[in-house]
Design brief:
Helices cover 30% and strands 20% of the residues. The protein is an alpha/beta fold and 349 residues long.
């Protein structure tokens, strides 16, 4: 099996170039071909010698994964299905192939990519279809970057949210590598302001993210009471939301970097006045936004969505308490591309 070049840094590509008998500066040229010109084969790297390209091709490939299916919503949202090998199986020849999904969300002049970082998820949130399928493996940087490079809208993307399948901070090493490529001058040269990472609050890796990245942060909160949050989010046992917020308050979000809290509203579970009061108390003195999300029904789950009127009433309670709160528009529900619905058209391909 050939090693993929996609996801490598210029220093790593320099070493690969030298091993292939190419000059050291060929590493920088390869980075330009991969991330700026976005070639799909080594043969397209035409400023490398033919002999060097042949040497590279014996052990390496660009490694772009193409989607095997795409669905388009009535609202223009598009969901792409990508096949990925399961890294948890040691023998590459025996690895099953799993499906992961990426969602392109158009909004006027913006095109936002909702990115997946894992096949399945370990966190087991009971209201999330991804969490229900269990964990199959981490995506590597090439798998994640393929979601940016292989879709029809690749050249027009304006923003990215790591809110797809999986917990990004549970795959921090590969996600960090992708963030570096997206924002580096030798990569895509995106501003960190164009990227948001969403997490349930993996505390050790959250601190690394806050220290090592300037991208925005979104935290899946959903209930301010620890004992209630634990009912639907087992992660609460390991990393309490109070500890997560305490860490976040140590950082500055008064400038260009933003933090938001995702709050899916379930009728009768987390939308009472006491929840609003507890949220206001929890997030006091933190420059942030609360995004209220309509719950999308899934099978065998006891809670249902709150009505629009009740979501607006809950929002007004938060606003009266001094928080900035908005109701997020639901996109792509008809193709199961909305929040909590990503599970792969086929769990295993």
């Amino acid at each position: 099996m050939k090693t993929r070049l996609l996801g490598k840094t210029p220093d790593e590509l320099k070493q690969i170039a030298l091993e292939a008998g190419l000059p050291a500066f060929a590493g920088k040229q390869m980075a330009q071909w991969l991330y700026q010109k976005r070639v799909r084969s080594i043969d397209e790297m035409t400023n490398l010698s033919k002999q060097g390209r042949e040497a590279l091709s014996r052990s390496y490939e660009v490694g772009l994964t193409l989607p095997v299916d795409v669905q388009t919503s009535v609202d223009g949202t598009r969901k792409y299905l990508f096949p990925v090998s399961c890294p948890s199986v040691p023998d590459a020849a025996e690895r099953p192939t799993f499906a992961v999904e990426a969602v392109m969300i158009p909004d006027d002049d913006r095109k936002t990519l909702c990115v997946s970082s894992q096949a399945g998820c370990k966190m087991g949130c009971k209201f999330c279809m991804t969490g229900r399928q269990g964990f199959h493996g981490n995506l590597d940087a090439a798998d994640i970057l393929s979601q940016f490079f292989a879709i029809d809208e690749a050249a027009d993307l304006t923003n990215a949210v790591f809110m797809g399948m999986g917990e990004p901070l549970d795959n921090w090493e590969q996600v960090k590598r992708v963030l570096d490529i997206l924002t580096a001058n030798w990569g895509l040269a995106w501003s960190p302001k164009r990227i948001t990472l969403s997490t349930i609050g993996v505390l050790p890796k959250l601190k690394l993210y806050l220290d090592q990245s300037k991208c925005h942060l979104a935290v899946s909160l959903h209930n301010p009471f620890p004992e209630e949050r634990e009912q639907l989010m087992p992660v609460q046992k390991a990393w309490s939301i109070t500890e997560v917020v305490r860490l976040i308050k140590q950082y500055d979000f008064t400038g260009q970097r933003r933090v938001s809290f995702e709050y899916t509203v379930f009728e009768g579970w987390n939308n009472e006045p006491r929840h609003a009061q507890a949220l206001v108390k929890l997030l006091r003195n933190l420059e942030c936004r609360v995004n209220l999300i309509r719950f999308h029904r899934i099978p065998d789950f006891s809670y249902g969505p709150a009505s629009r009127e009740k979501m607006e009433a809950f929002r007004d309670l938060l606003t009266a308490g001094g928080l900035t709160a908005t109701i997020r528009a639901s996109r792509g529900e008809d193709i199961f591309a909305a929040c909590g619905l990503l599970a792969g058209k086929h769990n295993q391909l």
